[in-house]
Amino acid sequence: MINKVIEQSRNHLGELAVMQHRINESEKIILKRAEERLDEVNVQIERAGKDALNQPQIYISLIEERDTLHRVIAQARASI
């Protein structure tokens, strides 16, 4: 009986280890894509900043996206 419980516990730990590995790999992908997008957004902000008075909503949307990307990047780094 105790051997069965021990074996089940080992199996569960193995499954958890596999899941944690998959999560880490997913977080790395998220981090990479968010960093790439952040680079693109920063370039767009620079361009849009020159015309921010004429198209303020575009500029504001880019600033909001940049803020979101910073949070996503911080969360991904914290979980890796």
Describe this structure in words.
It is built from two helices and no strands. It has helices at residues 2-49, 56-79. α1 packs antiparallel against α2. The protein is rod-shaped. 6% of the residues are buried.
Largest sheet: none
- What proportion strand? under 5%
Q: What are the low-pLDDT stretches, counting only 5+ consecutive residues below 50?
A: none
Name the average pLDDT. 94
Helix content: over 70%
| Rg, Å, rounded | 21 Å
H-E string: HH
N- to C-terminal distance: 38 Å
The counted number of beta strands is 0
Fold topology:
Layout: H1 2-49, H2 56-79
Output the keywords:
80 residues; mainly alpha; 2 helices; 90% helix; rod-shaped
Short description:
The protein has two helices and no strands.
